[in-house]
Structures are given as structure tokens and as C-alpha cells.
Amino acid sequence: MASETPRKAGAATAVAEETAIRPFRIDVPEEALNDLRRRIAATRWPERETVADDSQGVRLATIQELARSWLNYDWRTCETKLNALPQFMTEIDGLDIHFIHVRSRHDNALPLIITHGWPGSIIEQLKIIDPLTNPTAHGAEASDAFDLVIPSIPGHGFSAKPTSTGWDPLRTARAWIELMRRLGYTRYVAQGGDWGAAITQRMGVEAPPGLLGIHTNMPGTVPDDLWEAVQAGAPTPPGLSAEERRAYQELHDFFADHLAYAVEMSKRPQTLYGIADSPVGLAAWMLDHDPKSYELIARAFAGNPGGLSRDDVLDNVTLYWLTNTGISSARLYWENKFGFFNVQGVKIPVGVSIFPDELYEAPRSWAERAYPKLIHYNRLPVGGHFAAWEQPQIFSEELRAAFRSLRNGRQAR
Amino acid sequence: MAGFATTSEKEVIATTVADGSIRPFRFGAPEEDLVELRRRIQATRWPDKETVSDRSQGVPLAKLRRLVEYWGTLYDWRKVEATLNSLPQFITDIDGVEIQFAHIRSAHDDAMPMLMTHGWPGSIIELLKVIEPLTDPPAHGGAAEDAFHLVLPTLPGYGYSGKPRSIGWNPARIASAFHTLMLRLGYPRYVSQGGDWGAIISEVLASHSPGGLLGIHVNMPGTVPADVLRHLRNFDPAPAELSDREKMAYDRLLHFYRDGFGYAAMMNQSPQTIGYALADSPAAMAGYYYEKFAEWTDSDGEPERVFRYDEMLDAITLYWLTNTGASSSRSYWEGAQAGGGPFDAVDIPQLPVAVSVFPAEIYRAPRSWGERSFGNIMYWNEVDKGGHFAAWEQPQIFCEEVRAAFKSLRT
Question: Which residues in chain A are closer than 8 Å to B323, comparing Cβ atoms?
Fold first, then answer.
């Protein structure tokens, strides 16, 4: 599956071994790719849905088109792209953590750890690596440069799969803090959407010395009383502004009509044997995340792509398949006890970018109450749940703007 | 691209006869389907083990592997197929969908005609053990006057019944189709029985009270009053005004909706999405259905205590061979579109209703709730053992219950 540079035997002590940062390369055996193609070609399909819309889930025509594309898809292109990046493995808290680490050539670049979500992976972040580390090639200034650390969440991608319980967003946040310490970063920032938002906000609550601030594109801003109401499916309470009503309604509808996959993963992740055994079963499960993301992906397979291409989607699904991480990633839902969208109690500086097709558009009024040090709030005209992946340029501009005030020397002005 | 074909032989046959005729039906899985099933089982790619030592993350890997490995080696579908084919079976078109059913007449002429409907993840296989005791009671400790003529239909989208191609096959429409079936078979007066979907269909039928339906018996009654449902939806603790018995029922329901509802939420919202895995992976299907055998039988989560592997695999294999994972899931979507939940009180003001409460059912319905929506309770009993699959788990107790339930209607 993957090769690591052999550890040097002898001189290193056991402790040094444990904290060693080892280079990592992906090298999927040809047999795994053949097996995948064989399984896709042998897919047994159900009949088509009995509706003419998306209301019964992933449509047969969409997933069949995905399967056709998958048979002609070349994982090696993605693998080569990943292996062109400096990748590493290091053991933290008993678990091997895989990460990409790209340093900017600019001095004073701001170290930034970016965390993916579900059903995502490091693939979500590939398009923003160059704009963020090499801003002068992308219309920005050297002073906007970041050093990037992009880890894979435990149970996801090439990170190890936990074999015991407890790897929730908080434990992962603490592992990330250790990772940044181990990399020698004493002043850094953190970013994430989806699980990345949960983990990044936990880092913000932990507020380790050196973490200057965070940015998220899926903020937890819903006030406690509204959070209870929306989870119980209550109608929109009175006294909200138009923007707040809209946000409430978006969450209300998501909870009412689109949360089943999350309920199943938070209660019975292990029962989802089909996402380990069936490529098409896995792909369909990953496509049915939220209606707007599904629409975006379905467009790609209908020949009318928006922010995501067929290969984008297949890179990500194939990464899950080859690492057999459908169920191990689902277990994070089982582990999690934090709310997804409610106030998390982050007191350090927070930047927020609101993409219109996100699960909900957090109003500024809520963001100001949720984050006492709100350093950036901006609403974007396009983009959705996978913001970095869908709209890498806008996303990169947002991160530059969000963190500008936290850079060395800037605060003093 | 042969792998992308979706039309099955069954669908071709289904479109040819729509005249209300009743045609004999026999099971006969092609040998190549059985070979293909074993091939897929042997090629199963498993995930890593759960990170707990109990079933709190779902079906444990070791349990499912053992079951699936048996499925791919020692299990023999032909045995249950022969049993099924020893029954008189038929197929007929109703309301544009083929309905497959078994029809077993008692030797006793004045036997009571009874429609019995299975649930999810069930089939006629749940009901096999009660056929003889109910049609031939003197051979099974009953009296000739306890005899029933049995009609055991397969729900649309399940087993060898047709798969609806358009929407609208909700419980009310299915109930209406099964009423038509009883009339078509020449039973102008009959009773209806069921658990799970079978209970819901029996209750819907009773609430419409079509001429000829004399009464119903259910082993998963819908009794939860609207005010109690509101609390459940909010995940409130049991309201103080409930009796101890009602509190017990409430707490079980709360646990079910909090912890055990993911499978239904998924099928309510996205039957097609889960359908791809169920269509393509025998392990997916076995896991999804075995989870319910584990959670809903009277077995403390060890269904092997009440069912042999062969029995569970008979039930699962029928779904596999008919590729009905998605189409059966769609019955949940249809139910959700129609509104209401599986345990919601159904108003049946006049028609006689009988209820047997099995202790390991998803909730133990209190009679006090039943009395609020059922205007004419002819029988209510709580038995000591058995769970959601009552006829399958405890066929003797189940048969005694059904006989007792309908006794007052035989005069």
C-alpha cells in the first residue's frame, strides 16, 4: 500500500523512534487497482429510483456514470501528484499520523495546519497548496505566504486506524498541537471545515501557546437556545433577523431531511460493511452528504461540472477505497460528542468565511456572539461545503485576508 | 458493459399479464445466481475490527464474518426453496404490480380466512413455522375450530412480488391491494394479522374498515398517543404523568429513537443510496439485516440463541436473490412520504382489534395507550418470551395467541 523509508536502526533511542518524523510515499500495488476495476465492472445494480429527482438519494444514472468514469480513471496520476509533495508519517499518542508538509520559500511565512473533513481527505486541499505557499505566483504578495501542514485525520486516508476508542475531535486536536510542536512551529494558525472545523475549534478552545488564531468555513455559531430548538425540529422562533431566519431554516431542513447518513455512522458505523466491500456502495455513500454537494457532484458526472471535476471526485473516493477507510472514518461520528454547528467556546482570534452553499450560512450576528475575537467575517458569492476544493482561489484569498492581522509585525501597526 | 444492465427477467414477465388472473408460482433460483453469490462472498473485502468489545458500533466483525463464511460454504438455499415450493404459491397483478403469495387452505371447511403480512427485513420465511399449526390445529395441540385458511402475500418491492416503478406504494395502497387479493381469492369475510409492516398494513386496513374485514391481530401495535410522540421527538425524559407501565414503554421507545433508528432514517431519506451497497455486496446485506435479528429478537443481542444460521441466511438469501435491498428500503421512503411513524397510534374506532405484546418487541405497548385509539379491543395479552419476529421466534406461543385473539369472531 505505502512505503516508508526504513528507520535507521541502532543509534536512535526508543523515544526518538516514537517521535521520529519519517518520509512517506504512496505506492499502491497494481493488484489493488486491478481488484478495484474488477469489482466496479462486476457491480450488481439495483433498479432505478422511482422518482425523477434526488429525493430517494443518489440517482442510478449518476452513480452508473461515476462507475463508467471510474473504470477509465487513472489513480497513478493522483498518486504522482501526491508523491510530488513532501509527505511524512509520525507517531502521536500511539497512532501513526500522515501529513503533507510544504514550506514556503518566503521567510516569515505563517505556519498553518489545515484539516479536511468527511467525506473528504487531503485531496480537498491539493489545489490551495501552491497559492498559499507560493502566493507571488498567484497574484498575491510574499507577505501572504504560509508554511502548510495538512494531516490526515486518524482513521482517514493514510493515517493509522485507531484500534481502541477515544479518538474524538478533542484528542485529534491535541495530536495536531503536538504535531505542530514537533515540527518546531512556535507561532501558527489552524484552519478547517466539516470535521476540520470541529478539530480546529477544539484547538482554539485548548488555546495552546503559539496558536495565534483559527479560521473556519463551517463555524459553530448557533446560540444554545436555538441549537436545542433546531435539533428538536421546532419551527423558526420569533425575533430573528432575516439572515438568522434563513440560517435557522437551512439547519432545520438539513436535520429533518438529510442527516440520516450521519445518524447511521454515529450509531452503527460497523454495520456499514458494504462500504468496505463494494466500490459503488462506498461512492454512493460518500456522494449523499448534503443536497448541494450532491448536486455539484452529479453535475460533474452529467458533463456540466462546476467547482468539482470527475477526477476530483474519483481521486477522493479512490483514496477511501484503497485505504479501506469507509468504516474507520465513519467511526469519528460514533466518537464525537460535540455539536456540529453550535457555539464551541473559542476565545482566541477567529476568522470566518461564509460560502453560500455550505450546510448553513452563519449570520454575522451569531458569529460575533460565538467568537468574542472575530477577526474576519466575509460572505462569498460562490462555493459550498468543500470550499477549498471547489473554489481554491477564493478560499486562498480568504485565508490570506483572515490571518493578515495575526502576522508578525502587522499587529503593531 | 453487461454489468450495467438493470432489467431482470422478472420485470419482463411482470409486464405481460395484468388481467387479474391468478397464476401458479414456483421459486427456482438459477444455479448461476447461487454460484455468483458464493463467488462474491469469497471475495468479500472486510473492514478492520470495531474499536469496542460489544455491539455498540453495530454488528461486530467476528460475528458477521462467521455468518458470511458459513453462507459461502455450508449454506444450501435449495433446502428452503424446496420448503417454499411445497406450498401452493401464486402470483397475480393488482393495481399494476405483481403480488406473489402463498395460499394454504385448511382441510377444515369452516376455517377462518386470514391475511398474514410479513415485515422488514422479513418475508414469507418469517411465517413458515406457523403455517401448519394454523391450518391444521388438531395436529398441533389445537382444535379443528381454531383452523385458518392462510393467505401470505409478499409486499411490493420484496421477494418475488414486483418492484413498483412509480411512487405511491404506501401502507394504505398496499392494504387496499391485499384487500383486493382476499376478494379475488373468494374470501368476502376475513381477518388480518401482522407484525412490523404487517402490523401497520393491518391497522391501516382496519382504520379504513373495508367491508368483509372482521378484525385484526397485531404483534407490533401502533399505540403511541400524539402527545407522547411530541415528547419522544424532542428526546424528552418520560413525562411525569405516565404510569409506570407507560414509562417503561416510553423509555424503550426513547432508546430506539435515540440509538437504534439510523437504519430507518437512512431508508426513509435515501433508500437508493443504501441500496447500492445492498445490491452489490452480500456482506452489506447480511450485516444490515443481521443487525436487526440481533437487536430485535429475545436473545440479548445473540440471535444465534433463537435462530439457526440456516434460518437467518434463508431470510437474507431471499433478499439477495431477488435483489430487493433497494426496493424494500423504498417502502420506508414511501411510509415517510405518507407521514407518521411505525408506533404512532392508529385510530380504529369500531373494528375489533387484538394485540399480543411480546417482551423483546421494540417497545411493549401498554394497554392503556391501546385503549385510547382502539375502540374495540377484543383481546390483549402479554406473553413471556419472544421478540419482534414473534411468529419466527416463538411459533407455538404465536399460534396460541392468534387462535385466542380471533376466537370471539368465530360464531
Answer: 44, 46-47
